[in-house]
Amino acid sequence: MPKPPAVDFDDCVGLIRVYKDGSVWRANLDNHPTATDDDEDGSVQWKDYVFNPKNNLSLRLYKPSAAAAAAAKLPVVYNIHGGGFCIGSRTEPYHHGCCLRLAAQLRAVVVSPDYRLAPESRLPAAIEDCHSALEWLQRRAAAGDDTWLSDVADFGKVFVCGESAGGNVAHNLAVRVGSGSPELGPVKIRGYVVLSPSFGGTVRTKSEVRTPKVQMLTLDMVDWYV
User: Fold this and answer.
1) What sequence ranges are listed for the domain Alpha/beta hydrolase fold-3 (predicted)?
2) How many other C-beta atoms lie within 10 A of the C-beta of residue 106?
3) Does the residue 21 lie in any domain?
4) Does the predicted TM-score (pTM) go above 0.70?
5) Any domain includes 63
């Protein structure tokens, strides 16, 4: 058995450890099994796709089960998970449950992409990956060959949403893609929703300076991870 590193470089409340030799350990957040076809009452269906084979990245699509019978196609919510850029995934139960509710209650198709995590892959890797997932959506929209998606999704009504670190990524996508996303046609992004976005910079803001050192993600940790 290989001997584990002797000393932690940093520890984020037991969720992630970065050792002095550069190796990284993460807790498995996918500890609550979910159904493989739909949610508990069958109102939402979902499936996974690989959108970036080079980096082994997947996304998860959700749609209301009755979407095929709808009179009009449904808007698309592109939802980016949070996690301080260093934890989280499309399969994490909290994020998965959120996407199920968005699809069911908004009557929308939901796209939930994974992205490479820090500290192994620092920014702008997450931003590049989420843009890559938008390009994947563009290719699917242009081809129209996946009826599971194309029969129900209105690619002219796409809304990008992100929480915490995902909010930061959504903001950067807005800056990069711009209003109407002309280079992504036939995909058209109609709006962006940023929920408690995580921002930082080379100069400390007042809120960063006042952040207690007991917080889950300290300033030193955020600086090093991203």
Assistant:
1) 78-225
2) 14
3) no
4) yes
5) yes
